[in-house]
Amino acid sequence: MKKALSLLAIVALSLGTVNAYAQEDMATEEVAVESAASETMDSADAVVDSAAATTDSAVTEEAAPAEEAPVEEVPAEKGFTQILKEKFIEGGAFFMSFVLLALVLGLALVIERIIYLTFAQTNTEKLLEEVEGALNNGGVEAAKEVCRNTRGPVATIFFEGLDHYDEGMDMVDKSIMSVGSVENGKLEKGVSWISLFIALAPMLGFMGTVIGMIGAFDAIEAAGDINPSLVAGGIKVALLTTVFGLITAIILQIFYNLIVAMIDGIVIKMEDASISFMDLLVEHNKKNA
After folding, report:
1. Whole-model pTM?
2. What's the pLDDT score for residue 51?
3. How many domains is the chain built from?
4. What is the DSSP string of 127-184?
């Protein structure tokens, strides 16, 4: 009986020990699972955090250059007229005003002469044909009417010649020469003033140069020392007035040569047309004689 009880006790102890080991193993497994799950969640959170940090750093790196890049202001290039205006103002108002006045008056005369000479040009060949046809069909009065309705110095010369036709060919020749000289003077009217402004503009510039140099030397004398800043202002004014005076003279000289060429062309046409007109009147006089 005692042996049976001792066997039962041993079995019970062994069962209790097995249960205890089983419970400990289950607890250990649960702890391991929980730790593994927590580690997995922690690693996932770490991955998410690192990805977010990477994204934030990338955004920051992209935004940083945009913020750090300075906006460079490109200076606007000055045009020729703006530079010319600035230099004109820097040259001084007194002498620059005289140079500008010479340029304006000279250009006004140039424009007036070009317009006048443009309207003074005439198709002499066509006019001679019309006068010849009028003489043959309607006589001297019809030819005078054609000349009266045509503008230009050539038509005026023809009209005066026809007006003195009854007085003889000698009077016709003299009247053509007289009226031709008058019309030539009209063509050259105002051209001498243009040449005056051409010569006057550089003189005004040179005067500004001399006065500017005098002012520079006065500044040196007052300071008692040769300082470039004292001399620069006077020399600058001196050079700018000279430059603008020469520019004015060059512009007016170009237009002056153009006007002279136009006058010469009109005068040559007047002389040729006058010779042809005299031949026409002589032939017409022979027919009517």
Report:
1. 0.66
2. 45
3. 2
4. HHHHHHHHHHHH-HHHHHHHHHTS-SHHHHHHHHHHHTGGG-HHHHHHHHHHHHHHHH
- In this prediction, the residues of the chain whose per-residue pLDDT falls under 50 are 1-33, 35-37, 40-41, 43-48, 51-69
Domain annotation covers residue 132: yes
Residue 146 domain boundaries: 92-288
Residue 269's H or E segment, with its range, is helix 228-288
Give the pLDDT score at 87: 67
Compute the distance between CA of residue 272 and CA of residue 286 in angstroms, rounded to an integer. 22
Residue 235 inside a domain? The answer is yes
Instruction: Kindly state whether residues 200 and 278 are assigned to the same domain.
Output: yes
> Is residue 113 domain-shared with residue 249, that is, in the same domain?
yes
Residue 254: C-alpha distances to residues 33, 117, 259, 260 (Å):
105, 16, 9, 10
**pLDDT 10s digits, 17-54:** 434 443 444 444 444 445 444 554 454 444 445 544 44
Tell me, yes or no, whether 253 and 176 share the same domain: yes
Calpha distance 22→5 (Å, rounded): 25
Q: What is the model's pLDDT at position 204?
A: 87
Res 99: pLDDT: 87
Inter-residue contact 276 to 128 (CB < 8 Å): yes
Alpha carbons 205 and 99: distance in angstroms, whole number: 7
